Amino acid sequence: MSEQDPNHAEPPAGFQQPKDARGDATEAAETTDVTRSLRGLPAGLTARVPRLLEAMRSVGTGLELHSTLDRICETAAELAHARYAAIGVVDQEGQGLSDFVTFGVPEPVAHEIGRRPDGHRGLLGALLHNPHPLRLADLTADPRFAGFPRGHPLMRTFLGVPIRVRGEIFGNLYLAEKDGGGEFSDYDLHLVRVLATEAGIAIGNARLYEAARQRERWIDGSVAVTTALLSGGDADDALTVVAEQARRLAGSAAGIVMLPAEDGGLEIVAVSAEDPTDSLGVIIPARSPVVGMLLGGEAVFVDDSATDPRMITRLADRFGPSMLLPLHSGGRVLGALATPRARGGRPFTETERTLATQFASQAALALMMAEAQRDRERLAVYEDRDRIARDLHDLVIQRLFATGMMLESAQRRSDVPDVQTGVGRAVDELDVTIQEIRTAIFALQQEPAEAPSGLCTRVLREINMAAVPLGFKPSHRFLGAVDSVVGELTGKNLIAALREALSNAFRHAGAARIEVVVDATATLEDGREAVRLSVADDGVGMPEGGRRSGLRNLARRAESLGGASWFGPGIGEDGGGTTVVWQAPL
């Protein structure tokens, strides 16, 4: 069957029809009605039975819900010789249409019509509230007719029948414009009712399959997020994984992760979208009703972000249906997750809301576990840094100081001028070395909370910390008013890029000299003012075929801010070594 029907899909592992007695009885009754209808066909309709049976077989193939609806529309139009067909899917409240699938309307015409009907008025609304077969010779003459929107094709003859799934109204099947200009006959109505019954069974199976597939995808997404968060990688990268998975699973235009801001609002810290640059760093103020609900652990579901008064940021104008979910676990709210769809997009179903809420809870639990893991690792690092600082102070500095005193004594006893000069220079170098070691000790003993806010100071701190494993202190230069012109978000990412570059130089380059330059007077190719970080070394250079994960992280950080990152020759002889460049707009 799969070779004959490209829309056919095998059910996922473990998928099976629920053994619900009421549902089985309903389906059996529907099948019996179909059989009785076929037995009682008038003689004039007998010739169309083979076509009806073929149509029923076609409708029952495949398990994808939307492709099933498309197939029902096309089959019904062919069976009843109608030019147009549509299925309006009733929303969960039964007050409107959540989806509208059409056949026979060209794509350019559908685009010109614009927004699809919501079922709140007109003939579609009447069928929604009174789900019984309806046949009209001229739908425009019916008092319930509410007019066609601009660009809508002209329609006169009309036939509508309800579609029931396991005894409940799923929607209505509409046919319009009988071929040849005639009216839909009783035979047409009879055939379409039989087809609608079979369609209800096919839709029921497709919905069960779709629900199983959805749950499988959300479970796989939760596993991917947990793995990423507990892999020990960068925390910002892990949050990006949460945003990417949420966007993919929800079928939304964006995936957004927000964390509490200092002023009580929520700051966007990770975005997965076509253009995330104008969203990162945006703070939803504490006065927003949505913020209070999210920080209180309450999920918020919005039908249209652009018109909902609770959505007060400029970002809401471009989105439609949205899910805003708290990331809470163990009574603690860590942040929030948003999955907005584009304007005019399909509303989120109750199943999607439930699965997304469960995903957010799983992501929050993984975040807490990752945070606890990083705390343990950080504690181990602090303990190791304290030990190194004590060893440097108690052993290395004391020995260097003793060596300096011995050299000074030897200098005084020597009568050779060249020896005295050379020993004096060696003593001066020892004094400089002792001062650099004391700076490194201070950096090792400094708590993160003590770090000053200035970007220059944070750069110097990273350089001093890197000097311990490197065995030497990288040189540095600042160009421009670095502290005053570089924003907090850009500065945070620049520090992370510097840390990554220095780490690569220590682990892979085998460098003896490193130069760090932070230039706040740089410009991008498009003329925008920017800050540029350059980290150059005289090491072995970038090996062919070597790992590039660190460089990819640098590039991703820069691109998320609208900048770029690349590498080139270093400062060794004949261009040996590597220079890593990272830049972002101010």
UniProtKB/TrEMBL annotation:
Transcription listed as a keyword: no
Record keywords: Kinase, Transferase, Two-component regulatory system
TM ranges: none
Species classification: Bacteria, Bacillati, Actinomycetota, Actinomycetes, Kitasatosporales
Region annotation Disordered: where it falls in the sequence: 1-39
Protein name in the entry: GAF domain-containing protein
Pfam families given in the database record: GAF_2, HATPase_c, HisKA_3
Residues annotated as domain Histidine kinase/HSP90-like ATPase: 489-586
Domain named GAF: residues: 64-213, 234-377
